[in-house]
Amino acid sequence: MLIRPRLNDFHDLAFTQQDVDFAIPFLNEDIPLYLDPFLLWKSPSMQDNSLHTAISNSFNHIGYLLKKGQENEALTILKTSSECAEVGMGSSSKRRGVRISEKTALSISYLFSNVPQISKNGFTHFEEIQLYIDQISKDRVSDIACNFLKSFLIDYTIQQSDRHRIPLEKVEINNLYDYKKNQFVVENTYLPVNPETKQPILVVPKRWLRYIPWINYEDYFDGYFVKEILYEQGNIPTRVEILEFNRKNYDVVQNYVKQKEKTLEDCKNDPLFKQIPIISAKRKLDSIIKLPSGKTDNADKKYEDSVCQLMASALYPYLDFAETQSRTDSGTQIRDLIFYNNRSYDFLKDIYDDYQTRQIVMELKNVAKVERDHVNQLNRYLSESFGRFGILITRNPLPKPIFKNTIDLWAGQRKCIIALTDEDLKLMTSVYESKQRHPIEVIKKKYLEFKRSCPS
């Protein structure tokens, strides 16, 4: 079974996260990013600006319904729009969330009825509700925006699926917001699906994603309220007290929003993975080299942490990092590093073809001398799920009897285990710094050396 499988992994599609315009969905958990409507508002794209207007108009229609006395319909739209399982964004480990409660929906409706400026003009940035209502944060902002954009996201997902050959199946979308009717409708269409649950999957452009919305409560409190308002208040009020203050002082919130609009150039999308800078890579390498082998003073844990950060950055974008310290089902064994193999480099395609390697396992051993048990442990991981290629990252070259053991494994079971040492990490860091070649070539070099030692 693959670790943290993604949509492309299940369908055996050879593209990396860098290759595509969208965030590749996980099948069993959420992507830890959120759609930020502010990125659509600040975008130079007329399409993005129009979509932002559509979000705002759809949300403000709730206020229109309330004025017409259609409270039940308004609350239904609020609750329905508050969870968008198809996009799988947030912190859920099961791609499932819950809608807002009736109480929270009523609190939002209160804004349209009791804050005169909102009642009259509605919202330009509906994510301001985080500054007025408790229990509303980045996940709700993202889900509401995604629901109001679902029609566009369906078309976008179909387009990207055609481009990257992602299989589609006929599905029923129960809560599709119809912008003309201003209500949720049911529609049948074709989309990628989760192979286990058969639930439809929508993909979202990377350019719209951030870890935290540009307008958010924490930034408002730390960057504006404390500096501009709190000095007049004395004691620090609670969050609930601040939200109540905001509802009674609309202009205070608007001044904060205007400040955020003025600094829009600083608002950028967040990448799903960010490489550490060259100077940080060199520091990681330096700390690795200085560490003693063994477990003294937690040296093994420090070794694992530094190697993990160094390797994840050095091998990007050819290898997308999957997970660190992933326990087996029994909880008794640990696979130190797991990378997705999307065949984005000739060597990676070779090991995929020769060893059926869909994910690359890297076992970290902070020991002075690798022993047979270490090799056997990695060998046990090289199963049908991962393929028959693995890497031992350790301090020194393998002793001759242990190296012969790896040759025997190749000869007898066609399993390939190569070792990277401190010297190899030095070379990878040097290549990473120079940018003349790519660090993955160091692994390719070690593999070719290994193959030359194998019997023909």
TrEMBL record:
Source superkingdom: Bacteria
Protein name: Uncharacterized protein
Organism: Paenibacillus typhae
